[in-house]
Amino acid sequence: MRFEGMSTVGPWGHSVKKAIIGEGVLNIDNCAFWECVDLESVQLPSTLKSIGDKAFQYCTSLKEITIPASVEEMDHPFISCESLQGFHVAADNPNYCDVNGVLMSKDQTKLYFYPLGRPDTSYTVPSTVQSIEYCSFSDSQMLKTVTIPGTVKKIDINAFMYSKQLQQVSLSTGLERIGTFAFAFCPELKTMTIPGSVEFDYEDWHDQNYCGGSMFYECESLESVVFQEGVTSIPSAFYGAEKLKTVSIPSTVESMSTDFFLVWQAGGNIGR
Fold it and tell me: Which of 179, 243, 241 is nearest to 205 (CA)?
């Protein structure tokens, strides 16, 4: 299917398999190819400036995509593209780059998207990265372990949500913020250690993105969580984690969410 003679490509039908977006197109609109489950390839023009929110979300057959040098802005367009093997970014794009197929900011401080269909079972975040962005690993298919270095200050909202085989995420001292639902619906996640450098502000968490609220929501295999010395507050993080048995709370904790004990459906142990 060719898209030519227009400045913006808007929402399209679900049956398209190949999209060739002609020269002159400046923008791909929000949800333009949303849930085009048969879409296998996309050719983007050298005139393209922006790719909108959820533009290719749920394009489950899309395996690779090349980002032209002209692209200035992308608003989470590749969420839940579960067959993606890698991103390719033109070397002269001043805003984005790919590092071994992972989409990042040009200075490599922000990790935007990990290719969800890659067969690797482990991944170590590069030490240049300071922020793991919104939904960057959400719906990963094969990853079992992820190692995050101390250079990372923020794990954004929904970052690892729905990661089907994720068992372990190693966090390092230096991490400061964890977004709501960051590890929600990870059915194989069993343990987690939260560094003492992480700050939670759980009051009225519906209005706050980095309070840690529901970060382990419906993690049905989660058995133990350790909050290291330095953590001063415990968020409402565990609803639906029915196998959770042990939570270790440090002496530095001053306050806990009023919803904290909702997780104790099967009985558990709190240690200080």
Answer: 179
